């Protein structure tokens, strides 16, 4: 098509040949090369097939040289009559393997230009076809460009050989890490040990009845990750204002009574702690949006523009607009709306490559039972949420139902679903004056 239109396709046959020749001359450079380019970056079909063969051989620990590659090409069914001569030419055309990363950079650059041109054509076709509204087209265009800037390898059928290599590298990194968990630490050690932290692509849910502490624990996690990870935390609040949230963050960080903080009647020591807490929070990259009318698509679009995103927090699900057009739930089935929102949040977590932590209200079903501890079925419009969520944690405070309970601020964190491991219960102490949680010295019980 490009040739018919008189357009020159961006590619460099010489750079592609130099990369392959370098890999044949000096197989020690292969790990560096496969970290820079992939098979789809090669425009010439023959070059792509040779790269895929060497990639597969390297992934399975096989020796890579002209003889073994030629033999493996026969096994893979990509050998041609001129393959032997072409491999020899590749080695003769490459002066040295020392510059292989420069050659690889050229190959990747041309591939990115081709992908950008394809995205531009698709966007133009979408616009001139007149199908859909401008906002929807803008969202689609942003998504296409974001996918290019983030990772052009997503989608399609990926050979297991390349996936095995990535997984092995992740395991090696985890083994070398000082952290005992692979994901972001929530700041609640018992919870981290159970769910292995908040991991990229996870859709995690914290559910509770109103007033039990959903927002408080979400702010605890936000503050902890904002301080320890160095990454951006995006907090979408559909209920409370930015000022209210920051007031809570300050109260928890400084350990100053939230009511006193609102009046400003503080002692000199409390002022000092507030000043110190202000500096600590200002050094984080926590960003807050308190627009109550946001849809998942709009949140996703805002997050795509953040370069160092580590976590997305949404407070809370039942207040969200419908996932599609932004219409309120009054115009459609509540269950269908929650189903759409839940699915889109899981897709958002996977697309952004970060954990998405969403808060949710529990129904009143548990109030009818003698044992008030929440169950998965207590999630309001729960079917889709149960299916999409990777982690579901419910908060239960016995003192919420029984004012005479001996320890009214003791809170159970009940892990109802955990794709990464065990479920069970652990205990925290809620400090209402600081709207904060601290660990309780009580062993968790397996569910």
Can you walk through the features of this model?
This protein folds into two domains: 13-164, DNAb Helicase, Chain A, CATH 1.10.860.10; 182-446, Rossmann fold, CATH 3.40.50.300. Helix 1 packs parallel to helix 3 (45-59), helix 7 (134-150) packs across helix 14 and helix 14 (296-304) runs parallel beside helix 15. The protein has helices at residues 13-25, 30-34, 45-59, 66-76, 83-93, 100-129, 134-150, 160-176, 189-195, 214-228, 242-254, 258-263, 268-282, 296-304, 334-352, 382-388, 398-401; strands at 203-208, 232-237, 286-289, 309-315, 356-361, 391-396, 410-418, 424-431, 436-439, 445-446. Helix 15 (334-352) links the parallel strand 4 (309-315) and strand 5. The protein starts with 12 loop residues before the first helix and ends with a strand. By secondary structure, it is an alpha/beta fold. Helices cover 48% and strands 13% of the residues.
């Amino acid at each position: 098509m490009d040739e018919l239109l008189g357009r020159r396709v961006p590619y460099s046959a010489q750079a592609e040949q130099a990369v392959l020749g370098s890999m044949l001359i000096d197989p020690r450079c292969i790990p560096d090369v496969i970290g820079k380019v992939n098979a789809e970056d090669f425009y010439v079909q023959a070059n792509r097939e040779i790269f895929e063969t060497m990639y597969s051989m390297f992934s399975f620990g096989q020796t890579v040289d002209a003889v073994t590659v030629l033999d493996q090409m026969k096994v893979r069914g990509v050998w041609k009559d001129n393959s032997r001569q072409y491999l020899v030419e590749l080695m003769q055309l490459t002066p040295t393997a020392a510059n292989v990363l420069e050659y690889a950079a050229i190959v990747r650059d041309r591939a990115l230009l081709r992908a950008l041109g394809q995205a531009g054509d698709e966007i133009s076709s979408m616009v001139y076809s007149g199908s859909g509204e401008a906002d929807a087209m803008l969202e689609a265009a942003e998504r296409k460009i974001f996918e290019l800037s983030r990772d052009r390898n997503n989608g399609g059928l990926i050979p297991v050989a390349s996936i095995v290599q990535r997984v092995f590298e992740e395991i090696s990194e985890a083994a070398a890490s000082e952290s005992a968990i692979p994901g972001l630490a929530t700041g609640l050690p018992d919870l981290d040990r159970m769910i292995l932290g908040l991991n990229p692509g996870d859709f995690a849910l914290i559910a509770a009845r109103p007033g039990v502490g959903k927002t408080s624990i979400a702010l605890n996690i936000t503050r902890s990750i904002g301080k320890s990870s160095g990454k951006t935390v995006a907090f979408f609040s559909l209920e409370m204002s930015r000022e209210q949230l920051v007031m809570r963050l300050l109260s928890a960080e400084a350990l100053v009574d939230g009511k006193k903080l609102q009046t400003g009647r503080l002692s000199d020591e409390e002022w000092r702690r507030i000043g110190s807490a202000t500096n600590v929070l200002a050094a984080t990259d926590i960003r807050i949006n308190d627009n109550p009318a946001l849809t998942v698509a709009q949140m996703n679009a805002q997050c795509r523009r953040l370069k160092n995103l580590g976590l997305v927090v949404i407070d809370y699900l039942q207040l969200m607009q419908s996932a599609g057009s932004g219409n309120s739930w009054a115009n459609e089935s509540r269950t269908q709306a929650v189903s759409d929102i839940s699915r889109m949040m899981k897709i958002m977590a996977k697309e952004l490559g970060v954990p998405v932590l969403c808060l949710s209200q529990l129904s009143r079903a548990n109030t009818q039972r003698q044992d008030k501890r929440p169950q998965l079925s207590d999630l309001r419009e729960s079917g889709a949420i149960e299916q999409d969520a990777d982690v579901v944690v419910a908060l239960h405070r016995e003192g919420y139902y029984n004012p005479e309970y001996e320890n009214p601020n003791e809170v159970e964190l009940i892990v109802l679903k955990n794709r990464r491991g065990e479920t069970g219960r652990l205990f925290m102490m809620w400090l209402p004056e600081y709207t904060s949680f601290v660990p309780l010295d009580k062993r968790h019980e397996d569910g």
